[in-house]
From TrEMBL, chain A:
Any GO BP annotation: protein folding
One of the record's GO molecular function terms: Hsp70 protein binding
Region (Disordered): 51-70
UniProt xrefs under InterPro entries: TPR-like_helical_dom_sf
Organism: Apiospora kogelbergensis
Official protein name in the record: Tetratricopeptide
One GO CC term, this protein: nucleus
Top-level taxon: Eukaryota
TrEMBL record, chain B:
Region feature Disordered, mapped onto this chain: 190-229
Full protein name: Preprotein translocase subunit Sec66
Regions annotated as coiled coil: none
PANTHER family: TRANSLOCATION PROTEIN SEC66
Cellular component aspect of the GO annotation: Sec62/Sec63 complex
Any Gene Ontology biological process: post-translational protein targeting to membrane, translocation
UniProt entry keywords in alphabetical sequence: Membrane, Transmembrane, Transmembrane helix
Transmembrane segments: 6-26
A Pfam family matched in the record: Sec66
Domain of life: Eukaryota
InterPro entries: Sec66
Amino acid sequence: MAAASTEEYFDLLPIDLDPQTKAVTTSSGAPKALQAELRLLNELHRSLLTLETSPQIPPPPIPVNPKRSANLTKLKDSGNDLYRKGRHGDAVKMYTLGVQMALGRPLWEPQGLVREEVANLYANRAQAHMALQNWAEGAVDAEASVEAKRAGNAKAWWRRGKCLLEMGRLDEADEWVGRGLEMEGEEAELLALQQEVTARLDKIKKEEEERIGSEKA
Amino acid sequence: MFDVDWWSLALPFGYIFVLGSSLYVFSTIYRKRKAAESANLAPWFPAHLQKEVYSTLLELDADKDRKTKVPESVVRAALLRRAVEDIARIIQVRQAKQALNTLLQRGSVGEDLNQRFQRAEKEIEEELKDVVMEANALAPGWGQTIFQSANEIAANTVLRNRLDEIQNKSAAEKEWWDKRRETIQTEFMKELEEEPAKGSTKVSSDDDAVLVDSTTPVTTPSKKKKGKK
């Protein structure tokens, strides 16, 4: 009896409903965890309200609403066109729009799909950044691409490695490319990049030794 | 024949009585302590905040004195949040199970940990059934898909957080690289300027050597440190 009653018993939380916005609110002195939870709840509620079905419950993950996928392909294609024409800055903007749209998918849509799309867009944006010699942004984008899709994403592995190499961060590049090779197997481009990195590292080591040698002499 | 001497039997009976009652007292006290111990075992999971929010909303809805009713869409959203948290807990339980079993076999962890775990497992099972029932009550047939949706929501949230984390580094990285590029360029220019100077004025080469020593080593190490961050 005692156990049963404690299970059923719970403290009413200090929450209330905004009459206009229908948002669930709490006092500002409430615990941080509760405030964060309510923010997520209200966000989810708003995105549920955009559903056109009745009652408004999220549809099963599959099949996916094809509208957004079509728009995304359009954005990616126009980005690719701009890149080929050499307008790299505009291509970056187009890919950025694409990333925003891909991440704007409602949360209940399949995450595998989001990963695929986002990995592609980030990898392309990294390439556009590299064409502009924005190595820092390129490195970050390629890392994001790899985070979204680890295996079968050799291009993104290569691009971050290349960016790090260009910035002279040889140790990081060496480690990154090594991990990429573990993930992707013997990818020719990655192997070539690894050789390049090790060559640069060896050169620096030699120079260092020579410098020390000449100082001693 | 049947004349029993009750007085001489008093001692054995007394013995049996004392033995029985002491065993009884021991067993009741022992059981009570055990029950209290297992009741005091810390729960595996912290309080289920999402479930509390959901229950509170239902409670608010049941309150007749309130002017603003809780819309059903809010209740549905709250139930979905609860299901998302359940998914996180299921994943945690599944991951812990194997590790716990090996540790138990080796005797590395105590029995009470196992008890806590089994209770958590049972609780989550009940919780899942409860959510499915609630979902079916809110919208017919929703119980079949709510956990599919919750699963995607949980995974998507993790993915977006990771991507945000990576993208947030972008500004700092760019700033670092701009500074680094500038110093590389200035150094390069200096080298270009110094080379002809060295060749023409050999008399003041001592001064030049001092200059080179004082400028280059001071700037390079600080950059190297930054680069490794």
